[in-house]
Amino acid sequence: MKHAAWQPLLDWWFGEAESAAQVAASRSRLWFGYRAEQDEQARERFAEPCAAALAGGLQDWAEQPQGWLALILLLDQLPRMLYRGTPQAFAGDVRARALVRQGLAAGFDRQLPAIRRVFVYLVLEHAEELALQDEAVERFVALRDAAATEEHELFAGYLDYAERHRAVILRFGRFPHRNAILGRADTPEEAAFLQEPGSRF
To answer: For the chain, which domains are there?
Structure first.
């Protein structure tokens, strides 16, 4: 049976484990930690489809939930690895948000395992818009509340990060840690905030 075009990306991102806890244990270092070798692997394997997605292509992927999720990864997560530290790291965010909106309206997220839904809702968490931050928190609350007892702490952790992102947007209206990359000047309050531990996620 021929694999769908997006399957190699999903396999790389989520691995082969089945439970949310096992997937997170095996892949969190890839998801949330900077390692040059991981960025290079992403570049070698997925630079071409990422560029295609950023150019508006691969729209057929969004016709069913797994392809939709893979396209979201190409627009939201992969640019942050391939173009780390440059404005292009955020180049897919607008399209990713539109894609998430379409898929949520179609109920695509509810057809994905909870651990995969995290990367749909992260698109909302990455937005510099309070309404989307509110929605991200609501959706991470729902994930936590639906989690099995043994995975409650895992999803509570994702909710904690969503709440912390929302607090920054509520306070500043934007993420100060992006200012230097995007050529935005820090306000004095933002400059002080960026000196605080954990302010850069």
So the answer is: 7-193 (1.25.40.10)
pLDDT in tens, 124-178: 999 999 999 999 999 999 999 999 999 999 999 999 999 999 999 999 999 999 9
List, for residues 99-113, the tens digit of each pLDDT value: 999 999 999 999 999
Does this model's pTM top 0.90? My answer is yes
Q: What DSSP string runs through the chain?
A: -PPPTTHHHHHHHH-S--SHHHHHHHHHHHHH---HHHHHHHHHHHHHHHHHHHTT--GGGGGSHHHHHHHHHHHHTHHHHHTTTSGGGGTTHHHHHHHHHHHHHTT-GGGS-HHHHHHHHHHHHT-S-HHHHHHHHHHHHHHHHHS-GGGHHHHHHHHHHHHHHHHHHHHHSS-GGGHHHHTPPPPHHHHHHTTSTTTT-
